[in-house]
Amino acid sequence: MHSAAGLSVFCEEERRQLCALPGVGAGILRRLEALGLSSLQQLGTLDAHGLTHRLALANCSDCWTRSSVAQQRIAAIIALAQATQRRNAR
């Protein structure tokens, strides 16, 4: 799926699932999409530490790596993605 600007974006179902996680909203999804991540399948292949580091670099802010709350949110996103992959593999 693509945005009006041509960026790949999460489909509505995956966006709904991600936004159901505590503290995850449109801002985090925009940041993930800006990194070229637009599916739970892609997210399921990543680790939380590496993704928080990428987000910190992309946003020129080390708050992603210093904040335990931000790290927990990214870990929850990765866990959802991996659980979805396991469920779909059955």
Helix content: 55-70%
**What Rg, in angstroms, do the CA atoms define?**
13 Å
Strand content: under 5%
Shape by Cα distribution: globular
How many domains, in number, for the residues? Answer: 1
The helix/strand order is HHHHHH
What does this structure look like?
This is Helix-hairpin-helix domain-containing protein. It comes from Herbaspirillum lusitanum. By secondary structure, the chain is mainly α. It has one domain. It has 6 helices and no strands. Helix 4 (48-58) crosses helix 6. The longest helix is centred in the last third of the chain and has 22 residues, at 68-89. The chain is globular. The two termini are 25 Å apart. The model has no long low-confidence stretch (mean pLDDT 90).
Topology record:
Elements: H1 12-19, H2 26-34, H3 40-43, H4 48-58, H5 63-66, H6 68-89
Helix pairs in contact: 4-6
Could you give a short description of this structure?
By secondary structure, the chain is mainly α. 64% of the residues lie in helices and 0% in strands. Helix 4 packs across helix 6.
